[in-house]
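Q: How would the structure tokens look for this protein?
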Amino acid sequence: MLSAITLPILPATDFLSALSLLFALVIGHALADFPLQGDFLSHGKNRHLPPPKLADGKQPPPSTWAYLMSAHCLIHAGFVWIITGSALLAIAEFVIHFVIDFVKCEGRTSFAVDQWLHIITKAAFVALIWAGLI
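A: Here is the predicted structure in token form.
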């Protein structure tokens, strides 16, 4: 029988547990942004690139980018929810991640800035938890 994985790092009441939580969130981010994104999502979430062909070989509609961006952001939100146990932070992650990646796809920021904004977001989540606000 499979049991739920529980991370013994919540609540982040001291510096070491807060740092552990941040580390777990950054690991989740790395997994979701690199191996779990893949070329299909990576290219398809950008509205300025031609949408990738679907599994059946057909060309999708131009609006496919919004579905693929949403799927990518949901993967990130899932990691935040699993790691923190907070649906509120997961929803915030979805919205914030969507905005950050959209701005990057618009060419208004760089890859490095994009990654730092995601890490700063995770640090803000940890700060909210540590302060007892979440």
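The two ends are 32 Å apart (CA to CA).

Residues 1-5 have pLDDT under 50 and may be disordered.

Upvote if useful.
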